[in-house]
């Protein structure tokens, strides 16, 4: 917008200079050109009005720009204050430890791990020990992963307040040395010997990517140094990837458990159906014997009872109605076919 204003003012200045020259020439030419002079005067008046309008717009734009600059400066000042307060708070070991634990818990939640099933906060070691890592993550196979978030950040925070590059580099080297020292301390605790089912490594959690990259810039061999001492350095990004793998393993474990439950329910249902088939077969046998007994009784009825009853009826005994015929049961009971 500023370049356009400058260009416009240049064009206006050129136009006005030319207009003044033309006006002077016309004035010398005599009063016969009064109409042209009047037209030029009106054009200059119009141009002057437009310049005033443009000046008002420019002043408004400058006022808005000044307000934005002041707002940006205030925001930057507030950010500096908040950063200073955060840096001051993180210098306290208790606050820094709690912040690291909160970051660690957030990472575990983002990874899909359940607090009551897959990990526990601040667990105690086996009886007789005092070691308390920040987190223990349970693996599906009964193993565990120990995570420690007590990373020293004092030197890194001091590097952000350094006055020159040399002082900043010195503090970053100190930060890398602090991380190395923490690796040594964790290795000496031998968490893998204190917890049943723990794998032979401990995760040293750095609650920010910048803490990790700053240490590696000064000591690129930190990863190998930690691995040699069974300590794995992890940032939120890498720990999320690790724990998502663990969460996937838990899902697979639960799917396998559900499949086993379904198999057991199927086996139980099959045994119940088999027992029911035995009962049905027994019931069929009993029904078959009942039918046979019924048919034998019916045969005796027809051969021994009915003929005498008919002779009595023919001699005038009894009512006029004849005895109804009784049909035998001829449909056999179906047998249960053997299953595969």
Written account of the structure:
- Helices cover 68% and strands 6% of the residues.
- The protein is mainly alpha-helical and 340 residues long.
- Among the domains are: 1-55; 90-251.
- Helix 1 packs antiparallel against helix 2, helix 3 crosses helix 8 (236-314) and helix 5 crosses helix 6 (209-218).
- The longest helix has 79 residues, at 236-314.
- The mean pLDDT is 76.
Contiguous low-pLDDT stretches (5 residues minimum) are none
Radius of gyration, taken over Cα atoms and rounded to an integer in Å = 50 Å
Total beta strand runs: 5
Largest sheet report: 5 strands, mixed
Number of helices: 8
Percent strand: 5-15%
* Distance linking N and C termini: 89 Å
Order of H and E elements:
HHHEEEHHEHHEH
Give the rounded overall mean pLDDT: 76
Give the fraction of residues assigned to helices: 55-70%
Strand order of the largest sheet: 1-2-3-4-5
By secondary-structure content and strand pairing, the structural class works out as: mainly alpha
Shape: elongated
Summarize the structure.
The protein is mainly α and 340 residues long.
Defining traits:
five-stranded mixed sheet; mainly alpha; elongated; 5 strands
How is the secondary structure organized here?
Elements lengths: L1 H28 L4 H57 L2 H18 L8 E3 L13 E4 L5 E5 L5 H6 L5 H25 L12 E4 L3 H10 L3 H7 L2 E4 L1 H79 L26
Parallel strand pairs: 3-4, 4-5
Antiparallel strand pairs: 1-2, 2-3
